Amino acid sequence: MKPSFDYIFMNLATDLSKRSHCVKAHVGAVLTKDTRIISVGYNGPPAGTHNCDDEWPDTGCPRDSKGSCSLALHAEENAILYAVKNGAKLDGATMYTTLSPCLPCARLIFSAGITQVLYKNSYAEYKGLLSDEGVDFLNRFGVEARKFEEAESIL
């Protein structure tokens, strides 16, 4: 049996998450369209600035008022920004991410024209929130956002 593209792209997102320099969380994202990779990203500071695991190996970078990283871009942001920087068209694209999008990333995903998001783990569970606000936002406004089910991924 062959692995599905969903399985391949989610595994790539998982592998990319291992590139993260974040001390607190490792998140990867893959943007695709028509079974082709448009862009990839993982969470971390903007290229050429610093690496949190080098500067703050024990504590990670300073936290913002909500307890989130104050210096890094999220994996979804990095994937979208790289795609746009290189002229990719994102209308109708699919995003695979290892952590469901937070609300700010969900707004960016929606605005970029991405129409489907598959995620491996819940941001709400990771952050101790009542619901996945980003997933709720995306589904409310017509972007199919759902948890990736590995059992369905082999053809």
UniProtKB/TrEMBL annotation:
Pfam families: dCMP_cyt_deam_1
Highest taxon listed in the record's lineage: Bacteria
Molecular function in Gene Ontology: dCMP deaminase activity; zinc ion binding
Nucleotide-binding keyword on record: no
CC annotations in GO: cytoplasm
Cofactor: Zn(2+)
Keywords: Hydrolase, Metal-binding, Zinc
PANTHER family listed in its UniProt record: DEOXYCYTIDYLATE DEAMINASE, DEOXYCYTIDYLATE DEAMINASE-RELATED
Family listed: Belongs to the cytidine and deoxycytidylate deaminase family.
Protein name, entry field: dCMP deaminase family protein
Upper lineage: Bacteria, Pseudomonadati, Bacteroidota, Sphingobacteriia, Sphingobacteriales
